[in-house]
Amino acid sequence: MITLETYFDYVILPILAISVMLVFIRLFKGPSVVDRVIALDLIITIGIGIITVYSIRSNQKVLLDVAIILALIAFLGTVAFAYYIEKQKDD
Amino acid sequence: MIKIILALLSTGGALSILFASIGILRMPDFYLRLSVTVKASTLGVGLLLICAAIMFPDVSVTTKAIAIIFFLIITAPIAAHMIGRAAYFTGTPLWKGTVVDELAGMYNKETHELENHPDEGTDERGNIAETSKETK
């Protein structure tokens, strides 16, 4: 019988790490700028998930504050990229 | 009992995030990638945060988790809509198997606004509806 801690260590965190690697392939390959923007957005969102799982695993609830800040940064970054990409075509 | 619930929720969240990343790698088109990514990643992170809210028996952690979920659900569609709009204006190509493009010719390329010609608008929409019926 496996405990919940070993399940988080050997199943959940490796799945999330593999997801980040797959998104990094798209970040390097991406044919246009917008592909790279949504790849960055997805990487930050997966980072929120990793921080959550790590805070459960290590019993430190302070780490959830970092998740709030990361959610804010992801939204502001994507909106700023969209705004300036649209402006750039104008000129 | 609560451990089983935690294991099920975290497994669902992790698999949903994995599907989102496979989707962003394998989909043929920017718009399909956007459509896969936003929904699946929001669901996955939401499930993981619910897992954290159940795990810590504390009001402050539950409040923070609910706040993050609420913020993600509100802001993810806005960001996706803005980046999709920017991609459509900069002329990101559609997949070659795309059936219908309802925005074709409707946007004014210079002012970035929908053109206000009600007759043309209804006419084009009618045509598009007919063609989509035919293709089905």
UniProtKB/TrEMBL annotation, chain A:
Instruction: Report the membrane topology from the UniProt record.
Output: Multi-pass membrane protein
User: Per the record, what is one GO cellular component?
Assistant: plasma membrane
Kindly list the places in or outside the cell where this protein is found, as annotated in its UniProt entry. Answer: Cell membrane
Q: InterPro entries under this entry?
A: MrpF/PhaF-like
Where would you say this protein principally sits, based on its record?
membrane
Q: Which PANTHER family does the record associate with it? A: NA(+)/H(+) ANTIPORTER SUBUNIT F1 (PTHR34702), NA(+)_H(+) ANTIPORTER SUBUNIT F (PTHR34702:SF1)
Similarity-based family: Belongs to the CPA3 antiporters (TC 2.A.63) subunit F family.
Please give the name of this protein. Answer: Multicomponent Na+:H+ antiporter subunit F
Q: Which organism is it from?
A: Sphingobacterium psychroaquaticum
TrEMBL record, chain B:
Gene Ontology MF terms: sodium:proton antiporter activity
Q: One Pfam family this chain carries?
A: PhaG_MnhG_YufB
InterPro entries registered for this protein in UniProt: PhaG_MnhG_YufB
Q: Which domain of life is it from?
A: Bacteria
Protein name per the record: Multisubunit sodium/proton antiporter, MrpG subunit
UniProt organism field = Sphingobacterium psychroaquaticum
